[in-house]
Amino acid sequence: MSLATWGNKLHSGEITYPIVQQRKRWFLVSIILVVASLVLLFGKGLTLGLDFTGGSQYIITNVADPSAGPAEDVVNEIDSTQEPRITVLGEDDIRIQLGDLSDADQQAMTEALAEAYDVSVDAVSFDQIGPTWGAQLGKQAVQALVIFILLVFAVIALYFRAWRMAAAAILALIHDLLLTVGVYALIGFEVTPAAVIGFLTILGYSLYDTVVVFDKVKENTAHLTEQTRYTYEELANLAVNQTLVRSINTSIVALLPVAAILFIGTFVLGAGTLMDISLSLFVGMAVGTYSSIFVATPLEVALRGREPRIQEHTAKVLALRAGGSSDVVREDGTVHVGALTPGEHLGQASQPKRKRRK
Q1: What does pTM read for this prediction?
Q2: Phi, psi angles (nearest 5°) of residue 97
Q3: Residue 161, by phi and psi: left (phi above 0), alpha (psi -120 to 50) or beta?
Q4: pLDDT in tens, 106-131
Q5: 97-116 core/surface letters (b: 16 or more CB in 10 A; e: else)
């Protein structure tokens, strides 16, 4: 079966996967992953970049042998209390990150590094970032995240006229953020301002995918109470299946160039802004694709299932289905349909059928 044929059968409802019906399984998986991420976050912690912690940074360019050994020896000789973070940038640059240094140690370190790597003093650049600026940057990042979440909640609630959809979308976003941060804590990736930009970007990407699915749910359930053939859960699950191929294709198309950038940034250009932002994008996009399919809509169905109107309609559909009732023409001309007829599938006749009166 080709991808196009599979997608057509999913869209028509001829093939459906019980994604929403098995939501307890996906919720359990997500809860385990979120708890593990929180344990890593508060236990191991994040490796914050110099922009957040403050400190000193040296970058040495045009180095013949950009190995970490000479830098470690220099730092240990001048200030043995320092624990340097040494990173090779590209093929001939090296970066050394330290804590705060006195003016005398700064000058001594510059001259010693130039001598150790056999370069001129002009090839050694120095920057110092105060802890106050780093704390302010972290505070602004948190503020941007909170404002983003509040605006997203308001826009989704107004567009879909349903706060439950907005709540499900926000919880899915928080889920994506926690899992991405958990990966950073597990592997020890450095969190830089570029990584934070990547975090905010993936939230927008995940939200876009979720809104597309929600829009299909809204379309499928627009005339929910005018028919008694399908429950809200079934129509929502149909929406997930109908957008499944689109979600997969979009994710693959988005992940391939990001993976290429990440590969080039890691193994060719070395660590830097390119690697930082591509890393957060790659992890976040993968997690966002999972959440838009297995978390957002199942969670929205779980919240909507508490509404008395939805509960009453679901009970009616299941009761009629169990009774095996046949078609009945109501006074308003609508035809109530009982169980599905042989050869009929979920995607057919999702809207109420009408019959002309004689």
Answers
A1: 0.76
A2: -110, 130
A3: left
A4: 888 888 888 888 888 888 888 887 66
A5: bbeebeeebbebbbebbbeb
The alpha carbon dihedral of 289, 293, 295, 299 has a sign of: positive
Measured between alpha carbons, how far apart are the two ends of the chain, in Å?
46
Q: Is 335 helix (H, G, I), strand (E, B) or coil?
A: strand
Q: Which amino acid is at 271?
A: A
Highest mean pLDDT, choosing among 29-38, 196-205, 277-286: 29-38
Residue 226 DSSP code: G
| Tokens describing residue 73 | 């020896």
Hey, what are 348's tokens?
A: 């057919």
| Tokens of residue 355, six digits | 């019959």
Give dist(CA 241, CA 234) in Å, integer.
11
Domains of the chain (ranges; CATH) run 3-49+138-308 (1.20.1640.10), 55-129 (3.30.70.3400)
Q: Which residues contact 218 (CB under 8 A, 6 or more apart)?
A: 160
Copy the structure tokens of residue 160. Answer: 């879909």
DSSP 250-319: HHHHHHHHHHHHHHHHHHTS-SSHHHHHHHHHHHHHHHHHHHIIIIIHHHHHHHHTTSHHHHHHHHHHHH
pLDDT at 1 over 70: no
Half-sphere exposure of 175 (CA within 13 A, CB side): 29
What is the predicted pLDDT for the residue at 232?
92
158 burial via Cβ count (<10 Å: 0-12, 13-18, 19+)? exposed
